[in-house]
Each structure stands twice: as C-alpha cells, then as structure tokens.
Sequence to fold (667 residues):
Amino acid sequence: MSIWQYANPVKFLALSARVQPVLWVVSIAFVVVGLSWGFFATPDDFRQGSTVKIIYLHVPAALMAINAWFMMLVTSLIWLIRRHHVSALAAKAAAPIGVVMTVIALLTGAIWGQPMWGTWWAWDPRLTSFLILFLFYLGYIALWEAIEDPDTAADLTSVLCLVGSVFAILSRYAVQFWNQGLHQGTSVPVATGGRTVADVFFYPLLISMIGFGLLFVALVFYRTGTEIRLRRASALRARSERGV
Amino acid sequence: MALLVSDLSLARGGVPVLTGLNFRLEPGRALILRGPNGSGKTTLLRTIAGLQPPLEGQISGAEDRIAYAAHADGLKAMLSVAENLAFWAQVFGNSDISPALDAYALHPLRNRLAGTLSAGQKRRLGLSRLMVTGRPIWVLDEPTVSLDSDAVRLFADAVRGHLSAGGSALMATHIDLGLDADVLDIAPFRAASTSRVGASDEAFL
Amino acid sequence: MIALLIRDLRLALRAGGGFGLGLAFFLIVTVLVPFSVGPQQALLGSIAAGVLWLGALLACLLSLDRLLALDYEDGTLDLLLTAPLPLEAVVSIKALAHWLTTGLPLVLAAPVLGVLLNLPGGGFFWLVVSLALGTPALSVIGTFGAALTVGIKRGGLLLSLLVLPLYVPTLIFGAEAARRGAAGLDPQTPVLMLAGITFATIALMPFASAAVLRMGLR
Fold:
C-alpha cells in the first residue's frame, strides 16, 4: 500500500481522524513551549531589545507561509497529472492557512522592524516579497470561489499556482534588485547547520518552527476533511435532485 | 471515411449523462438525433466536435473533419456579412464565399453589418459558415431555430447538396427537414441516475 | 492566423472603445498626478518615469477583460477550438492584437505625457524603449489572466487581482530602466532583465493560456 491509497477520500478521512488528535496536541505543545521559552526565558538582545522576541512568531509564520505555497504547488501538480480530488482539495484547504501565516509574518515583521527602522513599514525586499505572496494567495483563493464547477476550479487554480510560483520566484529577485533592503541577513540558516544567532535563541526558535510546522499539517488535515465532506454533501444533493 | 462512435460515455457538469453509445455515420448520409431535452444531445455533439473529452469510448474519423454549428453563431456585429464569412473561410484555409452566400440567399445582405440582421438572417449566416469550412462532417445543434419555412428549405437544400458531394451531417433537431436521414434516439443510452462511473464526484459518494 | 489578427484589429477600430480608451485613461492618470502630489517640477521630474510606467500598466489592464470574453459570449471561441488553428496560436494572436491596439499606442503617447510630467531629457529614450520592451509582456500575461477568467461573469476585478502580482517583475524592471535613463545612469541591467522576461513570456505563456482556455471551455 503506497501513499496513493490516501487519494481515496474515505481512506483520507480515516487517516485524518487517526492522525489529527496527536498532531494537534503535539503541535500546540511545541508552539506553546517554543513561544513561552522564547518570550520569557531568553535574554534581550543588546541592540534590538525585547522586540527581537517576535522572531519566535515571525520566522515560523514566514516559513509556513512559503511552505504552504510550496505544498499547494505539489498538490496542484498531482491534481493535474493524476486527477486525485483529495490533492486538489488539499491545495484549496491550505491556501487560507497560508494567507493567515503570511499576514502574521507581515504584521510581526512590521513590529520587529519598527524600533530599528523608526517606521511601521519599510519596503524591505523580504517584507515586500511576502506582500506579493499575500496577493498571490488572495488571487488563488478568489479564483476557487469564482468558478462553479469544482473540477474546472481545481484545474484553473492549479495552473494559476504553477504560473504564480514562477512569477513569485521571479518577483523575489526583482524585488531584491529593486531595493537593497534593511533585512539583517539570514539569521537562521538551519539547513547549513551554521548558526549566526546564538544558541540560546536558536532552540526555542527551532521548537517554535517545529510546532508551527505540525500545526500547519494538523490544520491542512482538518480543512481538507471539511472540503471533502462539503464535496460529498453537494454530490449527494446533486444526485437527489436528479431523482435518485 | 466514416465517423465511428464506439462505446461512448459522456458527462455533463461532472455527472454521467450517456453511456454505451454506438453509431456509425457514412459519407453521404445524415443522422438525426432525437431525445427529450436534457438527454445529452448537446453534450454529444460538443464531444464529437472536440470541445470536451468523453468519459469513455472512442470517436474515430472526427479529427479535423468536423464543422460545428450551435446556438451561438460566432458572428461579430461590427463586421459585415461578407467579412464574417471571409474570416471563417480564411481560418479554415479557403477563400471563396460565394457558394455559401448563394446557398442561403445572402448576396443582397453581403455588405450589411451583422449586428443589423434579424435573428433569422443571423442564423442563415451562421449556417452558411459551415459551407466555407470545407469540412466533410457537419455537426449541428438545433440548426433551424429562428428560421422561417423558406429558410428551412434553403438549409435543407444546402444539407442535401453537402451530402451528395460526399459529406455527412449529424444533427439534433425536432424539425422534419424532408431529408433521407437515419434517426437515432439517444434516450435508451441515458446513464442510469445511480451511475457513478466517471462522475467527477464519484470518489466522494 | 493573419485573418484572426486582421479581424481583431478591425473590430477594435470599429468598436472604438478599446483603442482610444486605453490612451484616454493613460492621459487622465498622467494629468491627475500633479493634482495629487503638487506641481513642483523637481518632484514631478523625479517620479515621472515610474508614474508613466504605472499609467501604461493600468491602461493595459483596462482592456484585458474584453479580450476573450466577447469571443466567449458569441461562441467564437468554441468555433476556433474546432478550427485548424492551434489554440496556442490563437491566444498569441489575441495578445498581439491587444498590444497593437493598446500597448503600442501607449508607447507612442508616453513621450508626450512625459513632457507633462517634466521627465528629464535623457529619460525619453529609455522610457520609450522600456515601454516598447515591456508592454508586450503585459499583453501576454494579461491574456493568461483573461483566459483564467473567461467564463466568469463580471470577471474584470478578479482579472486585475490575478494579473497584478504577475505584472510586478515587469513593472519593477521596466520602471527602473526608465528611471535610470532619466537620471543618466546605466540602465543596461534592468533593460536586459525586462527583455528576458518579455521574450520568455511570449514564448511560454501561450501554452499556459491555451491550456487554461481549454479547461474553461469544457
């Protein structure tokens, strides 16, 4: 049995029911621990004071904002190639979560930057890229809502996600070109294993990031389940209207 | 070359509407589709024209050989009759629109803007477009809407001319055109309402 | 293919709306800017290149929703699907017609409007070059947006929402090229990036637009 068995909505719902309780508990635990450790138990930064603590909210949210889009891209491709409805609905379900993460990233980014920049908003490349990502999310969600036939909506939004991804990456470079920026440079190069932020900041951040990641997964399971049930309800209604 | 449809299943709006459809349309023959409203005639014609894919089954002999005419005529109000026809002729690689104008008595109207035509005249123009495509198989969905009896006769003559030149015609119509045509009732091919095969929401039921 | 282009151009000329409307809008936006930021020559001169780019972009956006919707409504799109023309060619021709009737006039009108906004002397050439290079991309990307929204009633606003984020790279490089030209700096990098985007979109986007159109017409 491969992962593709979960393309079956019934099996997916069963998996979701088994997996969600654990995910919710663990993710909330990690988020709470990460945030409280970060906010309350770490020292203030000598330059940025206590507002640097917003990093524990900002970085995970920003990471999830991008991960959500990436997940939408993968599930959109799966829909276009293999026509698995669960995949298309998962993409649809992930989008609002991505939007919220993007908004959190933007708000916390502004709060973080304000003491340093002296303004509530600066057109720094990273923040600007997130603003553009926000617009992409809005368009994607709006397109889902605007089209009646669910399969056509899935098709069109999938292509939009693909094309949008290319342009989002292009925008990233364009925005960097456009503004050399005020961002302090990558402070959490987790992948490289190097750390430019001191360890004392790093662990609560890591815990927070894991928590947000699991929270995202839990939310996607939950919302995809809702979408599946909605789709089932409308299918049954359509059948009953035809006089079954 | 005949148009051959085998074991065709179609869906409309994601719900299966026809299953197991089989027929063959030979050159020089006309086939009239009959069936109640909503039975899937339009869906069938659109599928054969290539506008939507079937759920299952095969259509052979249709590739690049279909001329399709349905309710929307594809006419531009701000172009004249001749300009509209010439456009479609050029799209399909032809240039002579006179036979089409003759067949539907459109010569007197040739420089009138299509937007100023009556409904019947517009429909005549839309049907004349079939003749400039040069395609052998005419697929027609309710072609006689808005036509008066004279115009219906013109249309029937045009179809007869097309058939005798080796073309074929597949149409959904309630009108008796006086053609020597076979009739296919598609009601028996209606998908059972409990049928789920290929339904877009099949997985959810 | 040429037949389709000629038909669309003829329709644009006869219907009047698309052709002059974009230009008029461009003029209106340009005229309104001094009223909103004040008439100081120095200020206007420094923002002229960017404002003109933005005005051209918005004017292009205006005529997009009629691009495919009209043909959808009268059945032309369905009939074109059955024609020997590949759909990729159809959308490319549509984008070309849009550029000829909207983008190109904007390119030609821009220098005149540049005078209104006190565009510095060196800026005129690069403004025209950047617009000439960038407006085709706007048409091609806009056609993709129009294809996405082709069946949606009142899709104009949604079309704008979908297309504007896609316009950002072109706008950034185009306006930057015009701005650098106006300031006497070397605009080579943004011009090259702009050209790259335009050629890539012209070559690749028709495939996405055609795929989307087929999906929407089903």
